[in-house]
Amino acid sequence: MTATAASPEVRAALRGQRIEVPSWAYGNSGTRFKVFGQPGVPRTPHEKIADAAQVHAYTGIAPIVSLHIPWDRVDDYAELAAYAADLGVRIGAINANVFQDDDYRLGSVTNPDPAIRRKALGHLLECVDIMDATGSRDLKLWFSDGTNYPGQDDIRSRQDRLAEALAATYQRLGADQRILLEYKLFEPAFYVTDVPDWGTAYAHCLKLGERAQVVIDTGHHAPGTNIEFIVAFLLREGRLGAFDFNSRFYADDDLMVGAADPFQLFRIMHEIVRADALRPGSGVNFMLDQCHNIEPKIPGQIRSVLNVQEATAKALLVDADALAAAQAAGDVLGANAVLMDAYDTDVRPLLREIRAEQGLDPDPMAAYARSGHAAKIAAERVGGQQAGWGA
Ligand code: RM4
Ligand code: MN
Hints:
Elements: H1 8-16, E1 20-22, H2 45-59, E2 64-69, H3 77-86, E3 90-96, H4 114-134, E4 138-141, E5 146-147, H5 155-172, E6 178-182, E7 192-193, H6 198-208, E8 212-217, H7 227-236, E9 240-245, H8 262-274, E10 285-288, H9 297-316, H10 320-328, H11 332-343, H12 348-357, H13 364-371, H14 373-380
Parallel strand pairs: 1-2, 2-3, 3-4, 4-6, 6-8, 8-9, 9-10
Antiparallel strand pairs: 5-7
Helix pairs in contact: 2-9, 4-5, 7-8, 8-9, 10-11
Bound molecules: beta-L-rhamnopyranose (RM4) and manganese (II) ion.
């Protein structure tokens, strides 16, 4: 297969692809043992947005940035949104944070103490107020709630408390706003996690209504989980709201998407293309949720966006008719060969061509490196408190 001969439809789909980057990727991060600082790291939400704008400037497909509250708390969210617009990007999902307050030791919305549950719900509602000010559609909820020891709390009651908080938040949403409910197998709770898997998230979303959808964070599964099955299932039910893309080797590593397993990313994007869910109007939000602990952050994000773009291009090159024919004929090896033929295609020349057509540098990594921007922000951003995830 020659990728450069790709059809106008494939080219249009690639030009129209949109990826959302996380503000926290530009701040300092690390493991629970050490956070390494880097020169030029943003001190403010404005500087994080400026970094995100760089990623868009070089890739052309990442014009949206997610915020995390309180990490990105400002006095005037409408002003922050206007600042983003001036830089050619916009604010996307608002991520609630009910996992870093001492009060949440035994949980946030599932805490046995009603006063702490009220406090957590108050934060979720505050995030909807922020969405109103920024024009955001998506409220992304990840609960670190769970227990460490058998008997510590009642599993069923915690589900009831969770459902109650979700329902109150759902009630508060505007007509165009959604809840995106994320799940995670374990960590920081080790015995029971209150939203451990897609089935739990899906069941809660079904109860809430159509504007509650599941987020698949690719790093939040047991090793060996078939994530593309989850993608296919949720798409078929109209309940896949978003991805948090990243890659993992062992746990929730938050490494660059496509770094650990580019083939898995291709298989996921194949299900997306198969369901015609790549279009920005499809309702699936393609977000990154990553931390760049040791590599430079802006190029780390550029590389990640390119990795998603390459997997997407390969998925778009799957010969759907040939695949369907082989599947219908029970041609096991033939069907597999159709998929692998697309995966094995070098799509980089095609993507370089498309970028050049759009007036972008064909090689975003090299262009950013040449730009001198890293040295500029290192020189400018002196003093103040570098942003971090506050762990
Ligand atoms: C969590 C989860 C959330 C993200 C935080 C930073 O593990 O994946 O999506 O907001 O990390
Ligand atoms: Mn996530």
